[in-house]
Design the sequence.
């Protein structure tokens, strides 16, 4: 049985691409309620879906969305921004990336933390293999995703004492609007969404849901960097410095 059976989930950036596929996968796994956040109003045929108007950079909309969610088991921070024609020479472009890809995660997680604490729920951040290696075609996106990965690790350590789990999907190349023009192989949104929920069911800290990211999975799990993360988190848990 999936962890989503009978549970509630909120997905940001839910009206297209991977976000839309995550909504459909949650429904397929018998989620009782799926809150679907998007910047523009939209409708869904399934009565279990509750659309929410939510720009992840808008504090008022975040607060309104949090007020509309009485209970929650899983928060999926999926909304993302990847601006092209960026060479790291324009601070404004970098700030736009951080507003969505970093502070969007931070602000929504903090807003929904009370209901996630009550349910002993899970935060899932949709990240990227570009969190580890800067993709020169999307350098600002990569920088913001690297920061978001560090944020994920920090939240994982600091929210553990509340019983809230924090996980990450390290996504490679998915066939979405963001990857238009990319000539290499792409995984479908539906297959990636299914593998993300499989990883949640297994309890993976980092989920590698497509062919490109799967090549990194075992190397990361056995790496000194992952061991250091565990060591530092254990020191926090025991009050060591």
Sequence:
């Amino acid at each position: 049985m999936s962890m989503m059976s009978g549970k509630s989930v909120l997905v940001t950036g839910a009206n297209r691409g991977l976000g839309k596929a995550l909504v459909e996968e949650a429904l397929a796994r018998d989620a009782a309620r799926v809150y679907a956040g998007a910047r523009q109003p939209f409708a869904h045929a399934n009565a279990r879906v509750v659309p929410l108007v939510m720009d992840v950079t808008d504090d008022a909309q975040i607060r309104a969305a949090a007020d509309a969610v009485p209970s929650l088991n899983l928060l999926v921070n999926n909304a993302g921004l990847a601006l092209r024609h960026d060479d790291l020479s324009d601070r404004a472009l970098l700030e736009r990336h951080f507003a969505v890809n970093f502070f969007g995660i931070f602000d929504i997680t903090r807003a929904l933390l009370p209901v996630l604490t009550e349910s002993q729920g899970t935060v899932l951040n949709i990240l990227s293999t570009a969190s580890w290696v800067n993709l020169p075609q999307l350098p600002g996106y990569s920088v913001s995703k690297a920061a978001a990965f560090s944020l994920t690790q920090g939240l994982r350590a600091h929210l553990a004492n509340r019983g809230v789990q924090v996980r990450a999907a390290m996504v490679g190349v998915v066939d979405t609007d963001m990857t238009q023009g990319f000539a290499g192989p792409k995984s479908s949104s539906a297959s990636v969404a299914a593998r993300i929920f499989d990883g949640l069911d297994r309890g993976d800290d980092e989920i590698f849901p497509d062919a490109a990211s799967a090549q990194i999975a075992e190397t990361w799990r056995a790496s000194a960097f992952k061991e250091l993360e565990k060591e530092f988190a254990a020191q926090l848990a025991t009050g060591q410095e």
In short: Residues 34 and 49 are 5 Å apart (CA to CA). The chain has nine helices and seven strands. The mean pLDDT is 94.
